[in-house]
Amino acid sequence: MEKQVRAAEMLYHLTKPNQFVQIALSRVNELEYEIRVEYSNSRDFSAVETGDVFTLSDLHEAMNVYRDCYVALLRKGYCYWGLIPRDRNEWERTAEKNRLLYFIEEYCHLKALKELREWRDEQADKEGVRHSAVFSDRNLRTLATFLPQNREELMNCPGIGEAKQTLYGSELLTICRRYKRKFSTPLPSILPKYKYKDGEEERFRPFRVKRIPAKNSSALREKVLRIGETGRDVQELSILSKIDDRETRRRVASAANKLRNPEVTRSIRHLLFDEGPQVRQFMLRAIISSDLREEMADDVRLLLEIEPKSYNRALCKRILAQ
C-alpha cells in the first residue's frame, strides 16, 4: 500500500518559504511519504467543501509524520497556514505566535497549570458557566508558562483583557507568584509582541449602540447572573445589554441563551454585532435556543460576512443551514 500523506490543502508561509519547502520535502521524502501542497480561496478554518482547507486539528494530525522537522522550524519562527492570508500582518502575527508555541511546549509549569485549572473549574461552578467561559485551557497553559508577577505582565498575557483582569486579576497573580518561570528571557520583550492588535474589533464599530457608563460593574454582573438563573425581571436585560462593560454584556447574552425567550433575544439583538467575540457567540446560541433562526437569518448572514472567529462562523453557518 502506497504511503501517502495528503498534508494537504495547506500552504506554509514563512520568512524563507523556499528554504522551508526544501527542508520539509527532504525530511518527508526520507520517511517515504509524499506531501501535496494545494491552494484555497477560503479563509475559513472550519470549511468542509471539497477542495477546501482542512481544520487546524486535522493539520496537526497529518503533521505527526514529520513532527521533528516541524517543531524545529517553529522554534525558528516559521509559521504554517491552512489557507492563504491576504493581509501580511496576519502571517507576521502567526509567526510571532508560533515562536511562542515553543515556550509553551517547553516551559509550561505543570504544577501551576494544575492549580490554575482547579481554580478555573471552581470559579466556573460558582458562576454557573462553562469552564472555558472563564478561561480556556490554552489561556491557562499560557499563564502557567509566563507566570506573570504583576498586573502589567498579566495584561499582556493572551486572553487577559480589562474585564478579566478586573474580575480575576488578584487571584491569578496570587497563584502565579507562587511559582518561578523556567526561562530567563525578560517577559516584557515577549508578551507585547504576542498580544498583537490586528483591528478585528474595528469592523464592529459601525454597529455599536450608545453605551451606558458602568458605575458598579461588579453589581451589574451579579444582577445579570441572577436574572439568568431565576428568570425574573427579564425586561431589564435590554438596558443591561447597553452597559459599557463587556463582561456584563456577555452575561446578558448568556442569560438570553439560558432563558430561551424570543422576546428577550429580540430586545438585545444588537449584541449580535458586539465587538466582544464571546458576546457574539452567546447571542448566536440564544438565536438557536430561542428558535429565531429564520427571523434573524438576515442579521446572521451579515455577521458571517465580517466575523473573524471560526467558532462564531461555524455557528452562523449552523443557523443558516436550518
From TrEMBL:
PROSITE patterns given in the database record: HRDC
SUPFAM superfamilies the UniProt entry points to: HRDC-like
Gene Ontology molecular function: nucleic acid binding; nucleotide binding
Superkingdom field: Bacteria
Domain HRDC, residue spans: 106-186
Name used for this protein in its record: HRDC domain-containing protein
